[in-house]
Design goal:
61% helix, mainly alpha, 3 strands, three-stranded antiparallel beta sheet, Rhomboid-like fold
Length: 220
């Protein structure tokens, strides 16, 4: 199932969400060099976090890695989810809180994956962890929203509308299942599944802490 639309707030422009999407795209096409050396330099290497003298640089790469992607498919998938679900969460939190929330979700996601694989020398890149936090927040705040999705049934393609709670719960269970599977030796693959799990759980747990007590008209 591929989400293509949802119920978005009317008359609200999610400037920060658009900015994050633009930043990811610009980094991919104009800054990121698709070489192994570049990935090791600016991607988060978990082993670096636990090596004396390298923790400072490793923390820096938590943030740079959030704006890097492994290919066009990786970039498109992440930006599609951010575009569809991010505006509602930004509307809920306001521009500034949303930006802080997004970055922190990425940090929580990266740290969980790193702690579960502390000896890994494979660089982690992608906005998936931060976006997973946005999905978790969306589930809490907009569970009844209808999400339009594309479904593929063999050679047939159809469009259906389902509750966000169903779509995002299925999404999370898929991440969790693949995460546990990745713990089996030889089945690790190349996806940081627990970064998705960690980001999602952080979003579910922390969204209420970031909500403004009184909604202002300027949505800061």
């Amino acid at each position: 199932m591929i989400p293509i639309a949802d119920e978005s707030p009317k008359g609200y422009t999610p400037f920060v969400n658009y900015g994050l999407i633009a930043a990811n795209i610009l980094v991919y096409f104009f800054w990121q060099q698709h070489t192994q050396e570049f990935a090791f330099t600016y991607g988060l290497v978990p082993a670096r976090l636990f090596t004396p003298g390298e923790q400072g640089y490793a923390i820096f790469t938590i943030f740079t890695s959030m704006f890097m992607h492994g290919g066009l498919g990786h970039l498109f998938g992440n930006m599609l989810y951010l575009y569809i679900f991010g505006d509602n969460v930004e509307y809920t939190l306001g521009h500034v809180r949303y930006l802080i929330f997004y970055i922190l979700m990425g940090v929580f996601a990266a740290l969980l994956q790193a702690f579960l694989a502390p000896n890994s020398t494979v660089p982690m890149i992608g906005a998936s962890g931060a976006i997973s936090g946005i999905l978790g927040a969306y589930l809490v705040k907009f569970p009844r929203n209808r999400v339009t999705v594309l479904i593929f049934l063999f050679i047939f393609i159809d469009i259906i509308h389902i509750p966000a709670a169903l779509l995002l719960t299925l999404w999370f269970l898929f991440q969790l299942f693949n995460g546990w599977t990745s713990l089996v030796p030889g089945l690790q693959g190349g996806v940081a599944w627990f970064a998705h799990v960690g980001g999602f759980l952080a979003g579910v747990s922390l969204i209420h802490l970031f909500e403004p007590r009184f909604k202002s008209r300027v949505y800061l």
